[in-house]
Amino acid sequence: MTDKELYTLTITPELAGQRLDKALAVLAAALDASLSRARLQALLAGGQVLRDGKPVTDASLRVKEGAVFHVHVPPPEAAQPAAQAIELEIVYEDKNLLVINKPAGMVVHPAPGNRDKTLVNALIAHCGDSLSGIGGVARPGIVHRLDKDTSGLMVVAKTDRAHQGLSEQFADRSLSRTYQALVWGHMAPPVGHIDAPIGRHARDRKKMAVTAKGKHAVTHYKALRHLTWNGKPVTLVQCKLETGRTHQIRVHLTHIKHPLLGDPVYGRRMAAGHRLDFPRQALHAAALQFIHPVSGKTMKFEAVLPADMAALLAGLKS
Question: In whole angstroms, what is the distance from residue 124 CA to residue 313 CA?
Answer without folding.
Answer: 35
